[in-house]
Amino acid sequence: MRYLGPRLATLLAVVAVIGLLPRLTRTDPALTILHARYADRPPTPAVLDAIRAETGLDGGPLHLLGSWAGGLLRGDLGESWVSGQPVGPDVTSALGVSLTLMGVSLAVALLLALTLAAPTLRRGARRTLATTRAGAGAAVLAALPEFLLAAVLATVLAVQLGWFPALGWGRAEQLVLPALAMGVPAGALLGRLLDDALPAAFAEPWARAATAGGIPPRRIAAHALRRTLPTLLPQLGLVVVGLTGGAVAVETLHAIPGLGGTALAAALAQDLPVLQACVLLLLLLGLAAGLAARLGSRALLGPARTARALPALTAPPLPVRRIVTVTAVALAALLVAVTVAGLLRDPLSVDAAARLASPSAAHPLGTDSLGRDILARLGHGAARTVLTALAVGAVTLLLGLIAGLLRAGALTETANALPAVLAGLVVAGVAGPGPWGAAVAVAAVAWAPLAAHTAALYAQEKAAPHLAAAVALGAGRGHLLRRHLLPGVVPPVVRHAVLRVPAIALALASLGFLGLGTQPPAPEWGRMLSENMAYAERAPWAVLAPAAALAALGALAVLTSAAVRGGRKR
To answer: Which residue has the higher pLDDT, 354 or 513?
Structure first.
């Protein structure tokens, strides 16, 4: 109950906020119902009053929430304001679809994560791990937008090669493309985190003793995986929830009737009974995933969790390869050059005669669907996209560290279960659409994975024997935190936060595309992707330019982090 109580309270609070959304946004849900059900009736006061009486809206928000909660206890999720049909069958069907897609996507993610970490596993088990792996390939894959990857896979594998169907749901082959689009970025993130933790496990005395004792490398690698899993299981739980409720773009592109798309459609239509049911199921799923991750971590740590007999994972002093630094400098120079060249051009100038023009001397990166210069929009959008993403990333890092150290598991799991799009709808409804509202919405949910990572590392650091020795020598809580706990927690979480900067940039851009963030015609990398997706086959340069910029940003962030870390260790 100590674990479930705060989470259930947080769940109910979020559902109540969703129920009060019309009051917060100062909109009249009766008008929504009128336009959806009775488009031929005029919006007279008498008609609106009749709709309120029919749906129970005339009793006020508390009465509405009480009626919904009472029906929930009877297993009744209410009726849709738009269709007038019971909510339960449609929402549970959408949940089943999302869970199926999540299972296959998770299998793809785990397979890719193990593939990316395989070189470190192989070299570490054979005691040949001599340099730090930057993980640039994983960073590029993690920075790929899901909807872009889904569109490319659909265009190549479905339209051009005809190997898989591009749309629909119900057959096994229809799972392949959306599962790849969702599983590849998630697997790249998990693989990068695993690859970052493995060298510390292989540097421990047991690994050296195992090698000297002739234990096969595959058994050493398996034990290293088990050693690092307690800090990664919370991330896996968050990925499970994200794959279920956060795949709005992929579900929309492939016409999949999943829970994320259902929640977004309900939010846009202000169909609150459907939205409340979707959010409730997402939060319950987050609660179950968090509980499973918690129990798994406790089982893996075993008695060492409370006996303080487990050494802290400390990364060995591996030098970074020179090519990592050179590549980071080259990428930074390329991004700066593109930005400066773009800033010298007009991003808003429209040339109707040059719509979707291919790259030329006049337009080095071509033009978009309106005839605007892509290089100009890429350069002007760099500051807006990168600086905002860095600012939001810094805020989420601070929030994640604080929440993780305070063990705010209920808030962490709740925030992760809510898609950023839904948070953006709430914030935009209260404060109005704009870049600040989008930044607040992304920051409100993006700190959750960092908090989970912080809490897992903190629990493992507290199980270290050196902490018991420091306590025996009279160390106070402040000294323990500064000298023993934070040094083992902060560096891995910072590297994790750096890896998420491109994803934050994309989340901000996605909200802008929905009209909840930066408004057109302002240039922004994610908006450029969304605006030109329909022309990807005819003018691929219009999509490849911002996609390459986002991928380069992700690779630069990870390469810079690896170069700085290796330089300090030398």
So the answer is: 354
pLDDT of res. 457 = 80
Between CA 347 and CA 518 the distance in angstroms is 15
What is the C-alpha to C-alpha distance for residues 254 and 178, in angstroms, rounded to an integer? 7
Token duo for residue 152: 């490319």
By C-alpha distance, which of 384, 367, 394, 397 is closest to 489? 397
Q: Over 70: is that where the pLDDT of 127 sits?
A: yes
Residue 313 DSSP SS3? coil
Q: Fill in the DSSP letter of residue 232.
A: H
d(CA 293, CA 230): 9
Q: pLDDT tens digits for 376-399? A: 999 988 877 788 888 888 999 999
Locus of tokens 């001599």: 130
Better-scored residue on pLDDT, 16 or 96: 96
pLDDT band at 373 (very low <50, low <70, confident <90, very high): very high
User: CB-based burial of residue 306 (10 Å sphere; 0-12 exposed, 13-18 middle, 19+ buried)?
Assistant: exposed
- The total number of residues written for the chain in this structure: 570
Give the dihedral sign, CA 548/553/555/560: positive
Give the closest residue to 273 by CA, choosing from 459, 60, 76: 76
Average pLDDT over residues 127-152: 68
User: Number of helices and strands (H, E) in the chain?
Assistant: 28, 0
Residue/partner pairs of 120-125 with CB below 8 Å, 24 or more apart:
120/195, 120/198, 120/199, 121/198, 121/221, 121/224, 121/225, 122/217, 122/221, 124/198, 124/199, 124/201, 124/202, 124/207, 124/220, 124/221, 124/224, 125/202, 125/217, 125/218, 125/220, 125/221, 125/224
Output DSSP code: residue 371: S
**Chain-centroid distance, C-alpha 310:** 31
pTM of the model: 0.72
Distances (CA, A) of 114 to 105, 132, 180, 185, 423: 14, 18, 15, 14, 33
| Higher pLDDT among residues 509 and 191, named by residue | 191
End-to-end CA distance of the chain: 49
Highest mean pLDDT, choosing among 108-117, 128-137, 159-168: 108-117
Angle (CA) 302-493-291 rounded to 5° is: 40
The pLDDT value given to residue 286 = 73
The answer to whether residue 108 scores a pLDDT higher than 90 is: yes
pLDDT at 103 over 80: yes
* Residue 317 CB coordination number (10 Å): 12
Q: How crowded is residue 493: how many other Cβ atoms within 10 Å of its Cβ?
A: 22
What is the full DSSP assignment across 55-95? Answer: HTGGGHHHHHHHHHHHHHHTT---B-TTT-SBHHHHHHHHH
* Mean pLDDT of all residues belonging to the chain: 78
**Nearest alpha carbon to residue 384 among 555, 547, 518:** 518
